[in-house]
Protein: acetate--CoA ligase
Amino acid sequence: MDEVFQLEPDDIYWCTADQAWVTGVTYGIIGPWAKGLTQIHYTGKFDAVDWFNLLEQEKVTIWYTAPTALRMLIQDEVRILDKYTLPALKRVYSVGEPLNPEIIHWVRRVVKREIYDTWFQTETGAIMISNRPGLEVHPGSMGKPLQGIEAYVLAEDYSELGPDLAGSLCLKKGWPSMYRTYLNMEEQYKSKFHGEYYNTGDQAKKDADGYFWFIGRNDDVINTSGHLVGPFEVESVLLEMEEIVDVAIIGAPDEMLFEKIVAFVKLKEGLTWSKGLEVQARIRVTRQVSPIAVPSEFVVVDRIPKNRSGKIMRRVLKAQYTGQDVGDISTMED
Structure:
């Protein structure tokens, strides 16, 4: 925890992750207790005022949360804006899904602190790539690998790709917390490795400065008209619109395009979707991503389905859109 969180003995630490998930166990129980930290555990339902009361009254100094929670705070901004100063809070960290630039700007403006994105998986056992104090934050980037972690963006033949080229995010085997197997699924475990590399299943790119940028899960990347589009970059652009408070992008079968891009959007309370908003959205995506990445369809929803760690459940949206069975939804957040 030292390199990322840079904790001090008198810090008061709050990780908002569910204790049944890997973040809640690793960074919400084992890690902070092993460091002898004072920490907060809260089992109540989400409420913006309750959370900010807790942050202020308990003098939380290090706050580790998720983009989903921060987006919910953004929607409730009127209840907390200018009402809390959080004098004890030093830094905010995020985990569970990519951190959109729009959220970073909001935290800087409203909370008046820096926020650092972190990336890891259950399989990695610990944070592998992260933004942290001492490393300049590039909004939208995952940051850089931690000391001793060798991360690469590789092509299908496992050759290393150059700057800004999308490929598979892979880690060189041998990091201390590397998982040993999938229980009773040894062949699936072996399939995750190619020689010295563990394939994370994520698509990413690495820029000339060594920063990594998340694109999407391999099975989330959309193949539209022969071009690969990552949901995250489109979602990030749409979230910059004041009218949109949450969004999810999926690929749906299409006879002409192979897959068409469908945007599910949740609007700010009291607003309705209009042709004008759709035009604005299309122009933004065209200018900031690509004309190819413009959604073919916008669907207004009351909520975006996510699991308890904050990850968008795209398979649920895709199943609902195509009229298929949504399958197991026991991990969906309340």
